[in-house]
Amino acid sequence: MMNIVLLGPPGSGKGTQSAKLIAKYGLKQLSTGDMLRAEVKAGTDLGKKAKIIMDQGNLVSDDIIIDMIAKRMDNSDCANGVIFDGFPRTEAQAKALDALLSKKSAPLMAVIELDVAPHVLVGRLKTRIAETLAEGDAVRSDDNEETLITRLKNYRDQTAPLIPYYRQHGILKPVDGTLPVDDISAIIEKFLDSKRGGARKAGMGGPG
Ligand code: AP5
Q1: Which atom number of ligand 1 is nearest to the Cα of residue 154?
Q2: Which of 12, 85, 129, 149 could form a disulfide with 31, with the two C-beta atoms 3.0–4.6 Å apart?
Q3: Banded pLDDT at 196 (limits 50, 70, 90)
Q4: Which positions are annotated as active-site residues?
Q5: What CA–CA distance (Å, rounded) separates 146 from 52?
């Protein structure tokens, strides 16, 4: 089972790289942002609460997020492995994920950190807004410069501390997120393939 975390600030390319990894390894993507937006769209109580927080650029509470992920991970479509996109975002979430995966005897194989400077992220956000409008679609309600500043601050204060956490666990792979999309994918795939090869050589099994 191949479980991977994509870690990075808003707009760093987590969703973009998830799509590539799904195609290559047949993994299930669990994006907590997408799951929350689905709740908002469905008008559930959770969605109503979450929308207020998301529109401010703040983080939804750990309890809600951990419960949402724990329920979803029991689905059979996660059996091959999961790409966690935008989760964990706090130390409490990271510890909860470790506990959930340890119950399944399928620890995290890798944490890919997409490193992109804030000024580049602001530029990408503007492009994404322009492209969405050009396609006639609705712009995400948290996609504006004011909210992005809060989202970036929350990343720096609450999520970036996970970088040393995962480095200590020996599973962190920092990647320059400003490279072209396909170059980033190639770096990630090379790293994951070396991890899979290493696990097989050590007689630890792993996906075929
Ligand atoms: P979430 O949906 O996770 O959003 P985010 O982290 O802000 O990230 P984005 O989806 O904006 O960007 P991305 O990194 O996926 O980049 P993308 O591939 O789209 O979270 C939204 C909110 O939900 C949070 O603020 C919070 O309120 C809540 N939430 C979610 N999870 C939570 C959790 N675990 N705990 C608590 N609250 C939670 O790319 C961005 C743009 O850049 C695109 O236009 C793309 O085409 C372009 N691009 C991508 N890669 C490249 C490249 N290499 N070069 C040039 N352009 C590129």
Answers
A1: 25
A2: 85
A3: confident
A4: 14, 89, 128, 140, 151
A5: 15
